[in-house]
Each structure stands twice: as structure tokens, then as C-alpha cells.
Amino acid sequence: FGESDGMQSAQANGGSMQAATLAQDGTVWFATSKGASRVSPTQLKRFSANTPPVVIEGFKVNGLALPLHTEKDIAPGADRIEIQFAGLGFVMPERIQYRTRLQGFDNSWVDRGSNTIAEYTNLAPGDYQFMVSASYPGGAWGEQNASFRFTIAPYFWQQTGFWLVALLTVIAMVIVAHRWRMKSLRQRAEELSNQVAEQTYTLKQQADNLRKVDEERSALLLEIKRQAAEFEQQARSDKLTGLANRRAFDESLHRECARSKRRNLPLCLALLDIDHFKQINDTFNHSIGDRVLKLVADAISQHCREEDLVARWGGEEFAILLPNCGNQAAHDICERIRQAVSETDCSAIAPDISLTISIGVTAYHSDDTFDKLISRADKALYAAKEAGRNRLNQI
Q1: DSSP secondary structure, 265-323, as one string
Q2: With the C-alpha atoms ordered 242, 245, 248, 250, is the resulting torsion angle positive or negative?
Q3: Which residues contact 48 (CB under 8 A, 6 or more apart)?
Q4: What pLDDT is stored for residue 208 in this prediction?
Q5: What is the average pLDDT across 55-69?
Q6: Which of 332, 338, 361 shows the shortest CA–CA distance to 275?
Q7: Cα(135)–Cα(96) distance, rounded to whole angstroms?
Q8: 191-239 pLDDT, tens per residue?
């Protein structure tokens, strides 16, 4: 409390005595430099409980005062809006507190303290309602708020219609540009087509002339190309069985090992050997042996998947590359191949021929080298033969 609240002086002390005392009627007496002051809490509560009404006194746009009789339509460009208000309280009017809210801008009430002016800058176009209420310190806010509505008109370029027209204009421009571009492309395509046709006709005439002048040379060139294709095919496939040869298999194995390591995919390698094949050659002849190799190659190919690569490894040995195939799946595929070979009927080739194969299977590990993987598969094959042949061994 101070002198504006009725105190004799803002300097309150009792010297060597106490500065205040509580009377039996509930009032408080203070010792001040200008005499004693009496404060009644009951009357203070009565004053604070009174909620002063509030009115809006003025409305300015860009410093220009406007009347408050009706709702205001404000032209575009209202950069600064000022609203003046006052609480109609005659008891300690300087102590009246205010709060305001501009619906359409404020999410909640804004405490203004004892300030009686609210300013807003750069409000967006739209409808607004300004509300203000007042209270004494410690008292409740008034339920009867003063309010005022106004509307800020947008510039033409802030209106929905303008943006709609602008959007349609842009779309139309895009369509026109697209059609012009397509027309240009068609014209260019026609020009290129004509040039290609002309060049093609010229080249055809030149080719015809060259063929007439040098037919033998052209025939020789075709023969060389044919032989080169055959040589390439022979270089990558086994002539007897039609399977991939060692060169083609090595290239595929390198490629699949890299893919398995890069993508963390399973990969298995199987080596197969025809049991007692030398005895078949010695007992019959190499022609019979070649027919046996073809039978075994066909049996292997029929029981492999489309993505598997079957190759003739050398002599009576075969190899199978099984990408995207785990240990159990590789075991099942190779076991079916072993059973199919053992059940092959060789009576049409020669009597008393019984075919069996031994198989070694291993899986690729990320730290394997090319030679390490082949060596492990070869060890598995050797172990199958040592165990009695006609069996599958997996490492």
C-alpha cells in the first residue's frame, strides 16, 4: 500500500516500537512518518469484489481515428490498429487491471496490466472481434466484456478469386507450353525421320554396290563372324554335354560370390564325380563313357532349379552353383540328383552298367576366397568317396 491507497505516508516504521498492530475489530494500524494509518481488510475486500465496467473509447487505423457506432470495414493496408479502452471505476482508478483478446488473432486472453491501449500491427485480412474486461487487483474479472467487431479487407491479390485466376492462368500457360513443345518435338522427329530415311536409302545403295563389287569378301566376313560365334560358344560350353565349361563356371562363381557377400545372400557349391568311371571306359570303350557322361549331365540338369548353373568340371566331374540356396535346400537338391543317377537305366547303352555318383557340398562364407571355397567342396567330395561312394557329404 502507498499514499494513493490512503496511507498517511509510504514511510512506515515504529522506531523502537513495532511498525503495526492488529486491533480487536480486525483493523490494522500502521505507524508512519506522518502519523498512524488504519486499514480495514473488510472494506478492502468489498472494494476488490466490485468489478468495474469497461468501455471502448477509441479506434484508430494507421493513426486515423474512426467512429465506433457500427462494425468497421477497413480498407487494405491497415498496418497499425490502435484500440483505446477504460474501466469505469471511481475508486482507485489507477489500480484497475485490464485484459484483452482479439478473436481471429489471439488464442487466449492477454494481460495488459493498467495499460488502456492495445496495438496490433500487420494483421492479416479477415474478421476480428476485440474484447476487453477489467478488475481490481485480487478481484474477479468482469463478466460483461466490452467488444467491438471490425473487418480488414484484403488486397485484390490476397483474394481467393485472384489466386484461382492465377492458378488457371498458370495451368493454361503450362498446357500451351506443353503443346508447343510437343509440336516442336513432332516436327523435329519428322525431320530426323526424313534424314534417317535419306541416310538409310543412301547407305542401302552403297551396301548394294559393295555387295555386288565384293560378294566373296562379304561371304568371307560372314563366315568369320559365324566361326567367331561358334568359337565363343565352344569356349564357354562343353561340347559333349552342352553344359557350361570350367571357364564359364569360374566367371559365374566369382560373380555370385561377390553378390552373396554384398547382399548377404546364401550360396552353395556342389562338386559331383561319377563313381568308377575309369572302370566303365576300360570295360567298354570311350564311346560308351561319353554316353554315360551325357546321361549323368541330363539327370543333373533335370533336378536343378532354373537359377542353378550346372557345368562339366572336367573328366567325369561336374559342378553345381546354387545361388540363393541354404545348406538344407542344397542338400535336398543334391540328394535328389544322387538318387536319380543311381536309378538311371543304362541298358540301352550297355548291359551291366550301374551308375552312381559321389557329391561334396559346401556353403559360401563372407571371408571365403575363390580357391578356399572350391578346396572345401573338393574335400567334401573326397570324404564322400572315402566313405564308400554313392553318397553325399556336406561341410
Answers
A1: --EEEEEEEETTHHHHHHHS-HHHHHHHHHHHHHHHHHTS-TT-EEEEEETTEEEEEEE
A2: positive
A3: 136, 137, 138, 139
A4: 83
A5: 85
A6: 338
A7: 6
A8: 898 988 888 888 888 888 888 877 777 777 787 787 766 666 667 899 9
Q: For residue 71, which of 89, 90, 56 has the smallest C-alpha distance?
A: 56
Architecture (CATH level 2) of domain 51-158: Sandwich (2.60)
Query: Beta strand 146-152 with 126-135: parallel, antiparallel or unpaired?
Result: antiparallel
pLDDT of residue 255: 95
Name the 3-class secondary structure at 137.
coil
Whether the predicted model's global pTM rises above the 0.85 cut:
no
316 is catalytic: yes
236-394 maps to CATH 2.20.28.120: no
Task: Cell numbers for 195, please give them.
Answer: 534424314
- The cell numbers describing 213, all together, are 563389287
Determine which one of 82, 94, 316, 386 is catalytic.
316
For residue 52, how far is the Cα from the chain centroid? 60
Give CA–CA dist 292/13, Å, rounded.
Answer: 126
* Most confident range, picked from 49-63, 189-203, 277-291, 300-314: 300-314
3-state secondary structure of 166: helix
107: exposed, middle or buried (C-beta count within 10 Å: 0-12, 13-18, 19+)? exposed
Q: How far is CA 125 from the centre of its chain?
A: 38
